[in-house]
Fold this sequence. Notes:
Layout: E1 9-11, E2 14-16, E3 20-22, H1 37-48, E4 54-60, E5 72-73, H2 77-92, E6 97-102, E7 114-115, E8 129-130, H3 133-153, E9 157-162, H4 167-172, H5 187-190, H6 192-205, E10 211-218, H7 227-240, E11 244-249, H8 269-281, E12 289-291, H9 298-306, E13 312-315, H10 317-321, H11 325-330, H12 348-352, E14 381-385, H13 389-400, E15 404-408, H14 418-421, H15 429-443, E16 447-449, H16 459-464, E17 467-470, E18 474-476, E19 489-491, H17 492-497, E20 505-509, H18 513-522, E21 531-535, H19 547-559, E22 563-565, E23 569-574, E24 577-581, E25 587-591, E26 594-597, E27 601-603, H20 606-613, E28 619-620, H21 632-645
Parallel strand pairs: 3-13, 4-5, 4-6, 6-9, 7-8, 9-10, 10-11, 11-12, 12-13, 14-15, 14-17, 15-16, 17-28, 19-26, 20-21, 20-26, 21-22
Antiparallel strand pairs: 1-2, 18-27, 23-24, 24-25
Bound molecules: iron/sulfur cluster (SF4).
Amino acid sequence: RYGHVFRPGSLGTLRLPHRLLMGAMHLNLETLDDGGAALAAFYAERARGGAALIVTGGAAVNRAGAGGPGYALLTDPAHRAALGRAARAVHAAGGRIALQLFHAGRYAPAANALAPSAVYSRFTRGTPREMTSGQIAETLADFAAGARLAQELGFDAVELMGAQGYLLNQFTAPVTNVRDDAWGGDAVRRRRAPVAAVRAVRAAVGDGFPVLFRMSAADLVDGGTPADEAAALAVALADAGADALSVCVGWHESPVPTVQSEVPAGAWLTYARNIGQALRDGGHGSTPVIASHRFTRLAEADEALASGAADFVAMARPFLADPAIVAKSRAGRAATVEQCLACNQACIDRSFGQERVSCLVNPRAGHETEFPLRTVGRTGRYTVIGAGPAGLEAARTLAGFGHHVQLYEAADRPGGQLNLAARVPGKEEFAETVRRRVRQLADLGVELRLGHRVATSDLPSLAASDGVVLATGVLDVRPELPGTPLRHVIGYPHAFTAPETLGRRVAVIGGGAIAVDLARLLTADGTTGREVTLLRRGERIGAGIGPSTRWVALCELRARRVRMLTGVRYREITRDGVRITDAEGTERHIAADTVVLAAGQERELDVSAALRRAGIRFVAAGGAAGTEGLNAARATAEGLRAAYRI
Length: 646
Ligand code: SF4
């Protein structure tokens, strides 16, 4: 299987065993004060898992080029040492690694930002300073110095970041380059900086060292690089000495979703195909094209390669979800690969937020040193109460250590709130995550008891366990509001599981992440003509949804004419709607046939109280530990942590 993936290939002089790379992702591990231990462990695990080549997250070639405080700075000796350690660790694991040379330009924190022109950035909410020609020349020299350093540190290749709206891409786009000098004015002068960067790097590293360039085939912003100019850029980069082009689309300011779950697999492949055609037309048919974005399975990569649209495929998030995606697929165990959900909860959103990157379905990602793989051998008896995301993760981890695990779930199916998410169009993969986890638990011999609410009769066996993880999750809050006992008032779990029973006009008390998901579900079938109104006390609809996905969800709700009222005060639920005071202080009645309560969650306390009364010690995880900032990524991370700490 996957005959197109598992063919050797070359990027310049670098011979690779197959065609699947781990693409660059900023991790916020790069500058940890740990001597590079976490970074090295993270990449080494992906190398052991079979990535043909790993491209690091961007390392800034100078201080102005750092995308934030968590970016490795090639001028900082400690960061250089950490990167060198990562390269050695990858080699020791049998892998190959390229260093990405990065300059954020106007996407750097506004106080430092330098760019081709002083054009405001919605991403940083700041305006950069225009670079002088001296600063441009110095920056190109810094790219060259970075490449030389990569060689010295033992990297196998470099990749210049020239996409996603970062500095070199800002030069090519008319909207961000309004200069009229040697570095801007027409297409040739606008592409001069990226081409000169490749020339400078090639001159610095010599002919034999692989130089990749990550280019943007479509900026997806008004005034972005035109398609014919992107094609001409590809040829000019190859002329200048680039050994391969990694093809990207979109900027952080693009109004078009590129990597969210709503985007179909392989949606951007055609752009890689176009760049390949441009290279062939320009006499560079042997320069490989690397496709990226929205590939999550080897089957998709294989299909893309079979189509001839690309020579290699780069994936980033799927290597967070499962470092061994390649090894497992190669061994005929593709069904056991942890599938990336394109949720961005623990990866891209944290990367933006200067937080350590991890993964919802693999909370060890980014924490490999904290949670080292343990050899199986200890055999205790543990009980996990609750089979939602936290409980499933705790049970899987404990059973993986070799323990006997009993997993109790009060509902008649495992998965908890993941089952609600799975009903939302675009999030169907959540259901597969639950099914996969249940299969893993069965393979590990976990005793799963569904429909079992922990009762007094269970306490003696719990007391005899070596440890108990409490992962009973959350209950939906019923607000103190006149009218809540009325028959047309329901909790959000019921609305998710039986949306067909709701009336045509639905008012939702609440406007957080759950309410937004519910509105998406209720309006997914455009034929029902359902009118949905979200009523939020706070100011932000969808607060708590990560920045990379919230805007996509809100666009969808607007397109479906979902009413979103913020700053409201709830007065009462009536027989035919909800009475509120709106943000202007006006009393209004929102007509509704069904009123859904999605105003928050609280911890389920009965079981923990019973355990405490019986003197049984436990570790709480997920909603049972607290509801502040709770999401599925936090729940799985706490399940893992509980299993290691118990
Ligand atoms: Fe994929 Fe979500 Fe994990 Fe990110 S957090 S790697 S999007 S599953």
